[in-house]
Amino acid sequence: MTEPVAPPESIAVPPAFVSVENASLYYGADSDVLALQDTSFSIARGEFVAVVGPSGCGKSTLLKLISGLSLPTAGRVIVDGQEVRKPLKNIGMAFQNPALLPWRTTIDNLLLPLQVVRPHRHEFGRKRRQYVDHARALLAKVGLEGVDDRFPWQLSGGMQQRVSLCRSLIHDPQILLLDEPFGALDAFTREELWDTLQALWEEQKFTVLLVTHDLTEAVYLADKVLVMSRRPGRVTYSAKIDLPRPRNEDTRFTPAFVEHVRDLRRHIGHARSTP
Amino acid sequence: MKIRRALFIASPWITTLSFFLLWEAGCRLFNVPSFVLPAPSAALEALIQYWPGIWVNALQTFLTTLVGFVIAVVFGVALGVAVGASAVLYRALNPLLIGFNSIPKVAVVPILVLWFGIGTVPAIITAFLVAFFPISVNVATGIATMEPELEDVMRSLGASRLDILYRVGLPRSLPYFFASLKIAITLAFVGAVISETVASNQGIGYLMLSASSTFRVPLVFAALLVIAAMGICMYAVAAWFERRHTKWTIRSTEHSRFAVGG
């Protein structure tokens, strides 16, 4: 399967911002484990794409490929017209483990990307005040106020994950890569964070790839859901989620929503049974 | 509840005092001759009697320990950072370091004497040799056990290896480093005393040796008491330093503080 070189002139097929073309990846000491096989898909600029699949199917590998932290053994990954040959330098990442720096306060944790990413790192000294204001504004948007000077261990798991999400967005990343960021949270906190993420995305329309094993989460948040098969992973199904936005709690109980989830569930089952 | 709390606070004093009281009682009860095991009161008497000599030698040992310790910190941190930041160096140096650490340092003292003569220099080097290892191991552990997620976050921001080391690795290894100082300072002290015992003409180790060769056993024990007291003091200073500089670890449970002895 190849991407059309010039997409037809319709609004329905926006040009690909990220495009993974026939990518395979081996890993392990002797590069003999096939993690990802002949995978192709694309993400448009500002699109929210979710990847679901059985555990150990190489979902996280996809994130590493797109960020350039791993390079494909075969095929290629193209981001913004450029083939990815080394780690990209302006990516936002968040994981199930918030991975905050325990010696830094909330604000200082948020400032970390600005101390590293170009061009901000060179302006950090001069613009610190401005950056701090920016960080405060972002914290307010995710409902975190008055915790600026607290340390990670003084925050609940949900709050830490909000900080982690803010840290992945503060530097206005090219792409946001989320690896089961809500996986370790309780159901209520998780649903709250879905709405937080949705609101941020509605406002800034960044490009997102969300890896999850929660079908409800995928359908609720994404424009497009990819289903991956068991190892060696490959994208076996792609579903367009055309539910109106903004979505809310009621959306999750509409027949269309339930039908999407059921449809995905069927394809996951299929993905699980094929060797 | 109040009594329990008071007991808890006083417990180190109670055990230490009981230890000396038992010792004293045992010596008196069984009439142990003082050239075999002098009672603590006899050792204390010797301590007062010989204080001018003990004081000078204790100071000598203390300075020797301090110099050896400072060199160990500088070298140990440098080695720990290098080994912790580079998987290749870690693998390459590991057998050499473990082998080196397995050598009893007393066995090295005669060689040092051969090279540098009898005196302060071998004692400083011995103190350094025993003390750098736990510092290196701890600093390296702190850097190498960085969460892989954090490394991914940093690399996908365009961070260089040096950036990652500076922003994450080094701050992260600080609690490990301070924990290792407590061990390193006591080890340096032991190293200095051992070297003085084997080959020196000054220091508390030498004092002990010369006292025992003239059968002034109470003086030997007085010196031992001084050594123990100095060890406790140095440990306390290092522990205080640790608490002061790494407040953030006290509640952060994922990064439990531990140190590896050498």
The named CATH superfamily of the largest domain in chain A: P-loop containing nucleotide triphosphate hydrolases
Number of strands of chain B: 0
Low-confidence stretches of chain B: 252-262
Rg of chain B (CA only): 22 Å
**What is the CATH topology of the largest domain in chain B?**
MetI-like fold
The ordered string of helix (H) and strand (E) elements of chain A is EEEHEEEHHHEHEHEEH
- CATH structural class of the largest domain in chain A: Alpha Beta
Global morphology of chain A: globular
Task: Find the CATH topology of the largest domain in chain A.
Answer: Rossmann fold
Output the helix-strand order of chain B: HHHHHHHHHH
Helix content of chain A: 25-40%
Q: Quick one: which chains have the greatest interface?
A: A-B, 31 and 24 residues
Summarize the biggest pleated sheet of chain B.
none
Describe this protein's structure.
The complex is a heterodimer of chains A (275) and B (262). In chain A, a hairpin with a 2-residue loop joins β4 and β5. In chain A, the strands form two sheets. A six-stranded mixed β-sheet of chain A has the order 6-7-8-3-9-10, sandwiched between helices. Helix content of chain A is 36%, strand content 23%. With 275 residues, chain A is an alpha/beta fold. The radius of gyration of chain A is 19 Å and the shape is globular. Chain A has two domains: 173 residues, 3-Layer(aba) Sandwich (Rossmann fold), CATH 3.40.50; 74 residues, no CATH class. In chain A, α2 runs parallel beside α4 and α6 packs across α7. Chain B has 262 residues and is an all-alpha fold. Chain B has two domains: 31 residues; 218 residues, MetI-like (MetI-like fold, Orthogonal Bundle), CATH 1.10.3720. Chain B is built from ten helices and no strands. At the A-B interface, β6 and α2 of A face α7 and α8 of B.
